[in-house]
Design a protein that fits this description.
Blueprint: E1 5-9, H1 16-30, E2 36-40, H2 43-52, E3 59-62, H3 79-85, E4 89-92, H4 95-100, H5 105-117, E5 121-126, H6 130-134, H7 138-149, H8 155-158, E6 162-165, H9 179-197, H10 199-204, E7 206-210, H11 218-222, E8 229-232, H12 240-245
Parallel strand pairs: 1-2, 1-8, 2-3, 3-4, 4-5, 5-6, 6-7, 7-8
The chain binds phosphoenolpyruvate.
Amino acid sequence: MRKKIIAGNWKMNKTPNEALALCQSLKEQVNSQEVDVVFCVPFVDLYPVLEAVKGSSIAVGAQNMFYEDSGAFTGEISPAMLTEMGVKYVIIGHSERRQYFAETDETVNKKLKKALEHGLIPIMCCGETLEQREQGITIEFVRMQIKAGLQGISKEKAEGIIIAYEPIWAIGTGKTATAQQAQEVCQAIRQVLEELFGADTAQKMRIQYGGSVNEKNAAELFAMPDIDGGLVGGASLKPEFAQIVQYK
Ligand code: PEP
């Protein structure tokens, strides 16, 4: 039985003081033993948020990192900088980074390998555009993203990776994939994982759905057999996030 994982992606929201206030308001209600809860916050909020969630079961994640250990990469953050602070998770290849910051499957793969080398748990994002869905190539495209992103990763390392299926047309738009649409793609993702790493590993790996998850649709989405929780954007900044975590 896979434990559900619900991660909030705060994106570029909340100054350090605002982040503290949000943690104070959510901390008690999202401090769950039943599901894994992660706050993926902007770099400058990592320290205050790590301090604020101390003593709870909430874990902290970054929203990006670079694929080198150190060096002349102005403006970038290394995996060791994150782990030394106590960060456990890192989102890799979010569609906004692919769209605005030229991330490719190749950089996603490099970042994934580097994150694993440092013991970070990657949340690797994938998902199709509206155009691709309308062309009927969703599964083919997502299969390709998964294969490219996970190229050269061993079965042992793969087990710890979280995959987030996020149809781009559903991110921040208020349009959620139906539970059936989301399940269909998550099942196809598990099928690729099985082809790559074998059935045992594929059954252990967690696959999240992301795209306008809210307190109303969370329970139905998370009840699907291949959906092991959610990556939540907008709603992770609101009191409703507590209801998403307590989705049952
Ligand atoms: C996201 O940022 O990963 C996301 C799914 O955003 P939203 O929930 O706002 O659609």
